[in-house]
């Protein structure tokens, strides 16, 4: 067989085989930002089958921009155990209890940690709808298509991916909960959008409000702020990491995984 044929065959066969296998999972995490990647690792550590769908061709979400394009972000001491789990280095920088982290290191090691624990990350996959069941309303999966299709403005029907739990980790827009609210009025969920900056309260509240929206659908990271009208916090990432860890614990509990 010619090399060109081998390349095409291996890419298509392996991708197709894997996509079929991944079309039924335990947890679908939508968004490969800090909260989504953190959740993915801790869920995979519990031996759950975890798939992350990310619409861009890269992971890290808002991390890569660092603090307003400066290449550092801030965390406080509560984030250190999570940074340790991902082997992310941090530096004490003269303000007690606060640390700086290199944004490039944070985004790559969060992704590597999720992958090493067994999560699968599919890039270029945009979720555009939920899959639901009624009586009682529950979310049982998502509908996704390749982001390139959206970029090209083509009218193409999406594919399905089913799972026992779906995490909205799409950031400031809370894409999945917004879809739930707009297209499934029966859920009685409204998305007020996030409030203006108040870093200390935002860092606390975003973790506190992390969790289940309706059966099958969970919210983590900045989506939590959008859904619950919480403040934003700027380039400090403790809340994102702890929110990701918390949603993983909540899902594991709901799915009956021994803690
Ligand atoms: O925005 P993002 O980093 O979300 P996060 O985990 O973290 C927020 C922080 O980065 C920062 C902040 C806290 O300091 O304010 O902004 O809450 O990552 C969200 C990811 O979701 C992807 C998007 O490309 C990004 O990588 N995403 C958004 N919509 C979709 C999506 C979609 N419909 N389908 C797939 N991926």
Helix content class: 25-40%
Strand fraction band? 25-35%
Poorly predicted tracts of residues: none
CATH class call of the domain at 23-58 and 115-254: Alpha Beta
CATH superfamily of the domain at 23-58 and 115-254, by name, is: FAD/NAD(P)-binding domain
Largest sheet: 8 strands, mixed
Question: How many H/I helices?
Answer: 9
Instruction: Return the string of H and E elements.
Output: HEHEEHEEHEEEHEHEHEEHEH
What hetero molecules are bound to the protein chains?
ligand 48F
GO biological process, one term: thiamine biosynthetic process
Cofactor: Fe(2+)
Pfam family, one: Thi4
Pathway: Cofactor biosynthesis; thiamine diphosphate biosynthesis
Characteristic terms for this protein:
single chain; binds ligand 48F; FAD/NAD(P)-binding domain; eight-stranded mixed β-sheet; 39% helix; 13 strands; three-stranded antiparallel β-sheet
